[in-house]
UniProtKB/TrEMBL annotation:
Family as reported in the entry's similarity comment: Belongs to the LysR transcriptional regulatory family.
Pfam families named among the record's database cross-references: HTH_1, LysR_substrate
Organism superkingdom: Bacteria
Domain HTH lysR-type span(s) in chain numbering: 1-58
The UniProt record lists the keyword Transcription regulation: yes
InterPro entries: HTH-type_LysR_regulators, LysR_HTH_N, LysR_subst-bd, WH-like_DNA-bd_sf, WH_DNA-bd_sf
Cross-referenced CDD domains: PBP2_LTTR_substrate
Keyword entries, A-Z: DNA-binding, Transcription, Transcription regulation
Gene that encodes it: cynR_3
Protein name stated in the entry: HTH-type transcriptional regulator CynR
PANTHER family, sorted: HTH-TYPE TRANSCRIPTIONAL REGULATOR YBHD (PTHR30419), NITROGEN ASSIMILATION TRANSCRIPTIONAL ACTIVATOR-RELATED (PTHR30419:SF8)
Cellular component terms (Gene Ontology): cytosol
UniProt-listed PROSITE patterns: HTH_LYSR
Molecular function per GO: DNA binding; DNA-binding transcription factor activity
Amino acid sequence: MLLRNAEIFCDVANCRSFSKAAAARGMSQPAISQAIQQLEEHLGVTLIDRSQRPLQLTPPGEAYFDGCRRLFSDYRLLEDRVQNLSAKVTGRVRVAAIYSVGLLQMAEYVSRFEDRYPDVVLQLDYLHPDQVYERVNQDEADLGIVSFPRDGGDIECIPWLDQVIGVVVAPQHRLAAKTDIALAEIDGEDFVAFTQDLRIRKEIDRTLRKNKVSVNAVHQFDNIENIKRAVEIGAGVSILPLPTARREIDAGMLKALHLTGLKWHRPLGIVKRRHKHLSAAASRFVELLQEALGADDPWTKRAPAERAKAD
């Protein structure tokens, strides 16, 4: 019971929220609160300062959290050694992904993983890119999924996918009758953009400037889902990794336009803490991501094993 309560405490400490920890563990918030209270009564100290928002750890709480993280890391290593003697994979995998990775695509990976490893709890959170790296750096996520991944310092990148970038327009747009266009053909168009803090926005802006193309950014969003909705209603054109709009393109809600004379892709990578031992469950999730789920997809290619750090 105390070990379980310590695990719950670590979840609350990571999330800085009782409700978020409850959702992550599939428990009620009162049950989470009761577990923390039992742990505090056993230790005779207050671990969490509940008067602040978000919740903050007390000095004893910080010390206990640090010790528990090291304890559970060693425990996962022990579990892996034992599991390697059998075919059974158990445990938990914590994954932090950027919003624009594509909700539909990730749902397919998650479904396959849960079917294949029913004894593993997979926790997937969608976050801003900076938060993904923060979770990985602080060992609050085993794996991160990001675009234009960094590889250096405490972060190690496993190359994953290269997604073709193209123009998307509403079916009624003047360009919708075309299949291929030059980038210059969107010069002066109303444009639905990513927010300026995102790396993909910086890459798009750089490519537009390089090709002397100017657009009128009428809306900015930090996730692809909102961008697609805005383009659908005719708010403007956009530039997106085409696989992320496949559902809307197949349904006729958006039209994809391939860019001629321009080889343009968005790299996706799986990031982890350098020298961190991945559990058997986390390693299996990486292996599943690297399987060719879309082998016949002309818009997605397996990333080269070695990628220049400039990406």
